[in-house]
User: What shape does this take?
Amino acid sequence: MAERVIFHVDVNSAFLSWTAAYRVKVLGQKEDLRQIPSVVAGDKAERRSIILAKSLPAKKYGIQTGEPLFQAQQKCPRLTVVPPDYGLYVEASRHLMALLRQVSPLVEQYSIDEAWVDMTGTRLLYGSPVLAAQMLCRRIREELGFTVNIGVSTNKLLAKMASDFEKPDRVHTLFPEEMEKKLWPLPVRRLFMVGPATERKLRYMGIHTIGELAGADPAFLRQKLHKPGLLLWDSANGRGDAVLAEKPPENQGYGNSVTTATDVTDAQTAHQVLLSLCETVGMRMRQDGKAGGCVTVFLRTAQFENFSHQGQLPGATDVTSELYHAACRIFDEAWDGKTPLRQLGVQVSKLTAERYRQFDFWNAVSAGQYERMAKLDCVVDDLREKYGERAIFRGCFPGGAAAMAGGLSKERRTGVTKPVPDL
Assistant: This one.
């Protein structure tokens, strides 16, 4: 039986690369954003504007993904800033996944710009794994106009770790026999799924490198970190899943959040923000045929402190007004009425494919009213899907502004899908 060969394909600075490729290959512009200090970021007038992607020349100025735009502009006053175009990103991602499926039928998409490809048994078609990866890099660069890193190994974990080595436009291998040299000397924070909090815990335990984690006593890690400690030990030793999931797992919950333009200091404004979030969440749930029985409200204060509160519903629902009333009730229980808030979020969990509700004598909403609300939501969804978000909105949102918060795609917001030729 042929040894398993897994590729992890990761687009280099995806949002900026896709924007640059579109401008150069489709619009015919001569200036390539990848060759100058440039970033993708939102409206600089909004405080939620952060760096979503950066070019290599911008990186040389110390600009980091996720930092506020104003800080990046202080580091590089002549920085070129372009707005995000999520419709374009979706189309570029579709082109990439389609090309990958031409190379192998087993492709697992991990995110909009990442995927695993099972290349087991393809040596007679494409040559050695390294040659196959180089061929794939070249095809993506020539046919789609952007570059990727490809990690090559025997399982998904090691392939992903390899793709994160030196960038851009590189092929790296990380086979089990190479771990001691290539993986174990790296700081423990470079291990997949190790965040700042876990890194601090490991450092407190005297573990600074991936190799030290791999050589630690599993029983000690379980005692200190419980079950996640054993998972980290497995990862440090290169033990990962080699089987690709062709279909993504079903959502365990639906949620959206939004950073407000100014601090929220009164319940009325907060309730309006929650309504806009519930509009978005409810529409997504109805599109997927899901209903939920638990609502969670997430809050972030002006001092960046986070807290949340949740509540159970009488039954599983996808009705926007019911989600909204539950979110308001939960918010009122959680917020002290004084602390300024900069971000609010709503999540619905305990999902099912069936809507159900327990009616009683004290419930103000009858079965008939509930069904009418559900049908009305579906009609509104259809109108927004066809004509755009602002085709119909509640009267409490003047002009339709912010009527649906939480990161809808650009084509959903405008009702117009930009034609994106092959990149």
The two ends are 38 Å apart (CA to CA). Residues 408-423 have pLDDT under 50 and may be disordered. The longest strand covers residues 253-264.
